[in-house]
Amino acid sequence: MYLKSINPATGEIIREYEEFHSDEIDNALESNYKAFMQWRKESVERRAKLLRNAAGILREKQEGLAFNITVEMGKNIVEARAEVEKCAKVCEYYADNGADFLKNEMIETEAQLSYASMQPIGPVLAIMPWNFPLWQVFRFAAPTLMAGNTGLLKHASNVPGCALAIENVFVEAGFPADVFRTLLVRSSKVEKIIGDKRVKAVTLTGSTPAGKAVAATAGKHLKKCVLELGGSDPYLILEDADIDAAVDACVAGRILNTGQSCIGAKRFIILDEVYDEFATKFTDRMREITLGDPFDEGKKMGPMARYKFREDIHRQVENSINKGAKLLTGGYIPKRDGAFYPATVLGDVKPGMVAYHEELFGPVASLIRARNEAEAIHIANDTVFGLGAAVFTRNVERGQRIAEQELEAGCCFVNDFVKSDPRLPFGGVKESGYGRELSHYGMKEFMNVKGVYIK
After folding, report:
1. Which of 47, 251, 371, 423 has its CA at 20 to 30 Å from residue 336's CA atom?
2. Known catalytic residue: 262?
3. Which domains does the chain have, with CATH numbers?
């Protein structure tokens, strides 16, 4: 069996990679577990040094790594370079702050000495998606390795070149052999790997159905898991918003990565007073988005990652139009090679439409009217998802109140589009998953927070 790497801009096969056999999987798990037994004893200073080395390797090989991203999943080359740089920064963040995150927390009790000690738990299996093929992995790997755990990567089947390149970054950075291993396997092998006694925890970024399956398997074996799943992020445009600035942020948040992002801006909930102005300006900007070769820096949007994904989102668009949504721009399959789909805007989206309820994982925006702030908040929360959300208003205190207290999401932004940042906790609620990545919260998800009491 082979994993195929296919260029979504041309449909051409780049390379085929032989899938790991059962013996290879077993050897990788065993070597990774043995590496953990030594790595856990390594000083935090040494771990930090190697993470800084990894950051240096990422910057040194930025062009080659960005090329891998673009050719395997179609990301615009400018965005691909930025993704590599973001990976370097997360390595540096944990190198700079990891030692403080791992310090004992002193707790006053009747004992002579009592505290919480942060201890690593062992190999962590990461099941990662294709849409940010380096960033998703490094945001797990940097805190995991800094904490003294080891990493096992089951990457998406369409980006095997990126998966192997990531492992090579850690090798070149000087990490001990087998501390980080890539497993070239299909999803059908995951259940058995999770159940293996050498694997101590699981983290998954992916769809809600995939998260439910992984959570069930991890629960069966009593293993901790962190799930970052789908999202249908609402953006509230209030009547006092700076419309031009809101349009800038909303367009950027919708077309980033060709709209293929869990935290992409998807549902735009606009108060009646400014609906027409926002809809006109937003649609005009979306209409200007050009399609083209993702290696052409002048083009703003490359192809979707697979032809199937384009077919899926086009079906969602057609279904919504048939239910009464207004097609304001886009909404067609271009007559050209590659899995391209234009920036698309659907207006007057209402309950009962696919574009209202389902995640649109591509460059399609849903515009929804709201009569007032209360109705806008209700619509924003009227979803099974709860990953990110944003609100646009000139009244910052109003925006902060809505973001902090009203919106049901794991991360909420005011006057900007939602993005992940190593310094902030990242994750969702409801069917967008549970657990947190990034910040010190992400590092401590896979630690044994051990209570120590000395009398």
Report:
1. 251
2. yes
3. 2-229+430-454 (3.40.605.10), 233-414 (3.40.309.10)
